């Protein structure tokens, strides 16, 4: 799933390549991707792209006051092309969901797999998008003091808190693994019980991991971003490989439709966490 660094990099790419161009046509290959009825997508036609930004993990293309807002979900992606085919795509064929023509160049929004989550809204104010209206403060703007306030009294697992978009916006499964590993904290730690020193490490790790990923990602072509993300990960999606810090084997906890990774030596005092597939004793 694209998270804060990748979405920020996509927004940067659109600022560099789309701003100043005019939307000449929008092709909708999958009507289900549109989550708003009015304004219609045809109202984007003829509008100049005046900006591109990010709200958490949402991408926002400002077309002279009318916003095309995108959430790429788990398997969605933006594919830029310097020369789009002028032929309208056939609805329901392949991964293409929506295509935006910008007078020659443009981009496709695509989604792999059968489980569809890619969502597009056309709104006059991004806050009209319910998932944006519910967002907590952006992860890059949360300092140590605010982090302590946000986590105070919370009793869910720390991993769950970090990925709760209404609490902190922009962190997903992969970067929460990386942040917790860098901070040397268990995914199952209780947020409201963290010591002051642990909160210091967590705040520093959030800043280090996310700003580092943004720096690696911004300026990369959209097609290279997924590979760039993988290359910077130390524990996420590295089950069975040695931890680059201590050499212990990276372990995995699997759920119904996702998994996360951690290092026992670095994060849990050398004790492997029980996998829900094998046990309900998760302490």
Automatic annotation (TrEMBL):
Residues 234-268 form the FPG-type domain. It catalyses: Hydrolysis of DNA containing ring-opened 7-methylguanine residues, releasing 2,6-diamino-4-hydroxy-5-(N-methyl)formamidopyrimidine. Keywords: DNA damage, DNA repair, DNA-binding, Glycosidase, Hydrolase, Lyase, Metal-binding, Multifunctional enzyme, Zinc, Zinc-finger. It comes from the Bacteria. Its cofactor is Zn(2+). InterPro entries: FPG_cat (IPR012319), FPG_N (IPR035937), H2TH_FPG (IPR015886), Ribosomal_uS13-like_H2TH (IPR010979), Znf_DNA_glyclase/AP_lyase (IPR000214), Znf_FPG/IleRS (IPR010663). Residues 2-148 form the Formamidopyrimidine-DNA glycosylase catalytic domain. Belongs to the FPG family. This is Fpg/Nei family DNA glycosylase. It comes from Amycolatopsis pigmentata. The lineage of its organism: Bacteria, Bacillati, Actinomycetota, Actinomycetes, Pseudonocardiales.
